[in-house]
Amino acid sequence: MQKLIDRIRELLADGTVARVLGWRTGDLPYNPEPAYFECEEELQDFVYNGFCGANLSKYMIEASRLEGKTLVCLKPCDTYSFNQLLKEHRVDREKAYIIGVGCKGKLDIEKIKKQGIKGIESISGAEIEEAAESLTIQTIYGEKTCAYKDAMLERCHVCKGKEHQIYDELIGDSSDTTDADRFAQVRRIEAMSPQEKFAFFQNELSKCIRCNACRNVCPACSCRKCVFDSTKFDSSQKANADSFEEKMFHIIRAFHVAGRCTDCGECSRVCPQGIPLHLFNRKFIKDINELYGEYQAGEDITADTPLTHFTFGDAEPSIVGERG
Amino acid sequence: MSIEKNEEFRPKIVAFCCNWCSYAGADLAGSSRLTYPADVKIIRVPCSCRVNPMFILRAFEKGADGVIMCGCHPGDCHYSTGNYYARRRMTLLFSMLDFIGVENGRTRVEWVSAAEGVKFSATMNEFVEKIYSLGKNVRLEDLRCRS
Ligand code: SF4
Ligand code: SF4
Ligand code: SF4
């Protein structure tokens, strides 16, 4: 991290960039937050550790309208989002100075708490200098340990790889964290009976409090006016009134990002209710891959997007029932 | 004494028909005196591509038991390509509805040209039959909208 900070200082001092988009230490040991840094003193709070899961690419929409260049730190998965935004003309490449930061997997505090570790005072092992096998956690009930792998975000187990898709320079090492199949759970649900599927989603979606965090954090949800804010939309700005509204919100949210969602995993990370939103996104991704050819949003910005292109021989919608 | 009513189930079917082909096909079915159940309510849209996923969900919300979308045959779209986009969209949406447990038979897409009055009537008869066998839609309805 020292190398990263030194380089950021340099670029800020020599005027290459007007500001830095990074992470600032939070009020707890595990909640660094996205922040702008404009001068040397502010950089004292800069941090890059295992809890910096937040994807900063969406902030570049705003930063693209500011005077001068913005230095932005992007993890490998974040660069897909940036690329996708570039493709959609939402960000200005000229206004960004991208430092591709290394990644050894990011942590999910909820996973740590689920292991019964409460009253956390400090966590060591989350600094990413050398790959830590385990975390040592000081709590008010004494010292606890937890394997790094067991505390990792779901998305890091299915990481798309540690290659940055776009950058100006790279700093820091990465290590492979992929140990699961991204579509395994989708397949498991597909194999269920309609009753079981319905019960599964009813149970998950009924937890939704419509805080809209999943939409707000999503780099693909970049519309300046969102359907969920429209006063004509009957479930805007309020909790879901019934199971229909829950399903509608989730289907429409996922549909609006279908073909553009890079599977960056931010929506699932921020959901306060722990709803596996990635299941919806990945169902669309899986269908697109199977029906219209392999497609990874944010990889090749010149590629045809699946929902704005077609072929004459595309499958008919009846395929949904036919493939069983 | 109970006041249980044993009313017969009559499905509500919403059919989105494009102005240029399927709506004309429905017209032809009528003028050829072909019959199809009155449970089918047709909503005319300029093009099948106009149907966004919300339309389908809304129809279910308001109490439809089945929703069918009809458009020009691929290659015959009045606007050249609208139905090709619609085809991808509906495929993904129907697949998603299936994924969350809404019975797949409740949604359908059929391409009906202005000359296919017979196909229109046959399709509607078949679809209504299917919805009869599936029964009332309870998985995607807004109870407040049921009368
Ligand atoms: S998905 Fe991959 S690149 Fe992204 S935070 Fe996880 S391990 Fe890092
Ligand atoms: S973040 Fe979670 S609780 Fe909030 S609106 Fe999205 S799914 Fe619902
Ligand atoms: S839907 Fe979720 S995974 Fe997809 S781009 Fe948005 S935040 Fe990322």
Description:
The complex is a heterodimer of chains A (324) and B (147). The longest helix of chain A is centred in the C-terminal third of the chain and has 15 residues, at 243-257. Chain A is built from twelve helices and eight strands. Chain A is of the alpha/beta class and 324 residues long. The mean pLDDT of chain B is 91. Chain B is globular. Chain B has a four-stranded parallel β-sheet, with helices on both faces. Chain B has one domain (13-140): Rossmann fold (3-Layer(aba) Sandwich), CATH 3.40.50. Chain B is an alpha/beta fold. The chains are: A alpha/beta (324), B alpha/beta (147). Chains A and B meet through α6, α7, α9, α11 and α12 of A and α2, α3 and β4 of B. Bound molecules: iron/sulfur cluster (3 copies). Residues 208-214, 270-273, 275, 277 of chain A line the site of one iron/sulfur cluster (SF4).
Total count of domains of chain B: 1
Structural class of chain B: alpha/beta
Total helical elements of chain B: 4
Specify the CATH class of chain B. Alpha Beta
Overall geometry of chain A comes to: globular
Secondary structure tally: strands of chain B:
4
Q: Kindly report the oligomeric state of this protein.
A: heterodimer
Widest sheet: strand ordering of chain B: 2-1-3-4
Determine the mean pLDDT of chain A: 93
Bound molecules: iron/sulfur cluster
Query: What does the largest sheet of chain A look like?
Result: 5 strands, mixed
Distance between the termini of chain A: 51 Å
Low-confidence stretches of chain A: none
Q: What does the radius of gyration of chain B come to?
A: 16 Å
**Strand residue percentage of chain B:** 15-25%
Shape of chain B: globular
